[in-house]
Amino acid sequence: METKVISGTQFTSLPSCYVRPESERPKLSEVADCEDVPVIDLGCGDRGLIVKQIGDACREYGFFQVINHAVPKDIVDKMVAVAHEFFSLSVEEKMKLYSDDPSKTMRLSTSFNVRKETVHNWRDYLRLHCYPLEKYAPEWPSNPSSFKDIVSTYCKEVRALGFWLQEAISESLGLHKDCLKNVLGEQGQHMAINFYPACPEPDLTFGLPAHTDPNALTILLQDLLVSGLQVLKDGKWLAIKPQPDAFVINIGDQIQAFSNGKYRSVWHRAVVNSNKARLSVASFLCPCDAANISAPNELTTGNDRAIYRGFTYAEYYKKFWSRNLDQEHCLELFKN
Ligand SMILES: O=C(O)CCC(=O)C(=O)O
């Protein structure tokens, strides 16, 4: 494929390199709306209830939405606006940031891993490392001029929310609130600002095919006007309707491993549509490279033998990026 972004170009038909074989297409007519998405009110004042709801959602779904999460609305609105502004720049301007090298800490790219995949995905994305901010923010785009300030503020807010949630997740497993954070070490933070242009033939391709997230926790901001996120529940794909002022929280592979498989790293995908471009902002909290990921003793006693062998996050991450996105669950390769 020509390594070129798709946002900013008009397509009247889907180029063949995006067309999935029949058996791998999204079958959009078979997807139902998820009617019972767990929505957890973090401002309800009852921590015990919140911890229980989070535990139930992580076990049953591997994802949930949070409202009253304390991230100020104006910071979220500005994040969305500046992301739209970035993707409205000319193709020449955006191409200055283009790279298909996954090891780059700041890059505009397209699809998922154009070096490895055979069929591409209808997505452009800006991928940023975000922690420590003093190290990474200087290399972020300087066009739009407000980008660095707005995204830095958003990143700090989302990181605080993520840590709050990790404490609650730890408690929901019957552990001390700091247990999960201690295992993950000084966490990295990455962001993918995803832009899915309107697609001439959305039935034939994906924005992102089914995948689980390799990190610990993902905090996803969905475009309120255009849906596209789908999650796999009991073998069926369900569409997650965007909800005002909510974040979607996905459990990643590292929490599945830490919980000894009690919590599920959810399979999810993004589909596209022919009318409107869609934007999402995914913030990923990632263990530090040297973190030794294994379930604590409390979760591997009695009948609960350790399902996965211990590994470092660096080892896991390397394996994840050496594969195609839609292969078997990467954790399968780390089973005892
Ligand atoms: O756009 C979405 O809703 C999903 C994004 C996602 O799964 C990702 O960035 O890993």
From TrEMBL:
Task: From the UniProt record, report the name of the gene that encodes this protein.
Answer: DMR6
Question: Hey, which family's this protein in?
Answer: Belongs to the iron/ascorbate-dependent oxidoreductase family.
Cofactor(s), by name: L-ascorbate
Read off the PANTHER family from this record. OXOGLUTARATE/IRON-DEPENDENT DIOXYGENASE (PTHR47991)
Q: Which reaction does it catalyse?
A: salicylate + NADH + O2 + H(+) = 2,3-dihydroxybenzoate + NAD(+) + H2O
- Gene Ontology terms, MF aspect: 2-oxoglutarate-dependent dioxygenase activity; metal ion binding
What top-level branch of life does the organism fall under? Eukaryota
Keyword set, alphabetical order: Dioxygenase, Iron, Metal-binding, Oxidoreductase
Please state what the protein is called.
Downy mildew resistance-like protein 6 v5
List the source organism.
Ocimum basilicum (Sweet basil)
Question: Taxonomically, what lineage is the organism?
Answer: Eukaryota, Viridiplantae, Streptophyta, Embryophyta, Tracheophyta
GO BP annotations, alphabetical order: coumarin biosynthetic process; defense response to oomycetes; response to molecule of fungal origin
Q: Where is the Fe2OG dioxygenase domain?
A: 187-287
Pfam families, alphabetically?
2OG-FeII_Oxy, DIOX_N
Coiled-coil stretches are none
